[in-house]
Amino acid sequence: MFLAYSAANMQEYGVEADDYRYIKSGNTYQKVASDYNGNISARYALAQSCKGIKAGEIEYDTDGDDEDDYTVTDGAYAIVIESGEIKINSTDDAIHCNGGDTFIRGGTIEIDTCDDGITSDLLTSVKGGSIAVNASYEGLEGAYVEISGGTVSVVSSDDGINAASADAAIKEYILISGGEIVVDAEGDGLDSNGSILMTGGSVTVHGPTGGGDGALDSETGIIVQGGTLYAAGSLGMVETPSANSAQYVLSYAQSSAIAAGTTITVTNSDGATIFTTTAKKNCQSVIISLAEFVSGGSYTISLSDGTSATFTISSIVTSVGASSAGGGMGGQPGANQPGMPGGQPGGGNRPGGFGGK
Fold it and tell me: Which residues lie below 8 Å from residue 166, measured CB to CB, with a gap of 6+?
């Protein structure tokens, strides 16, 4: 149940002003960011937890007096999904693990939610299966997010895949080593409060059209060592992978919009197509990293509207076209980024570093 903002509701249901994170449009509700500046009197709060699958610290009220009698907190918690067909339509998080990890190893999962699709306090790990988050506030979230297999499709009103934690001792990361990932995000496509490392797999990001977010966003840098990366978004907050990356990167930008529906193709010097895709939304910045890129190689990026540019790979990040209007980390396409924590790609303070669990 959603509660309209009022002092009476806050007192009766024990919600606070910070809980009013939803706005109503017709008969649907949408979660908004914590710094949303809309009038609080027009916002709503959830009266109780409405999650689809939940594990972790649970508060119990055994006598019905609205006071928690005890909380189960001992041990580390986990949600493990290995097979089956799961469909969740929830107002709150669809799959949520407090104080632990979520492991997706197989199965077919379809999610529609007003809040997060899959979220864990620690690790969210995907090694197989099919995940379709058709509607969410944030799609996949954890202090650490690791994807090594399966297919992941995310539609989000904020960040698509997010590594974040309230624990200051944690150094967050997103690690992608396999799988097929498609993100359609109104906020940041891939967003890490720490680092992002890609060593394999296929990542497609249809990022934000507004200038306040970016297709890729990290606190301490992005390193690409393998796989296929395509990230398109606005030009205001472009962050490119680091010059410490092992795989070459093209950062292409236009001062005018690349229209939704435009076909984007990369060919080599022999005219053979090595990459092609279609822009799902208007964008100005396109970041592409391919195993086929080699130092000294000549390539052409062509748009179906007739625009094209030929470039030669002379550094890890090759910039073609316009510069960023605002600038996130990196300031403009092609700028160097800091390396990963720990002085090497993939370093972190989680036991075992990347892949430590």
Answer: none
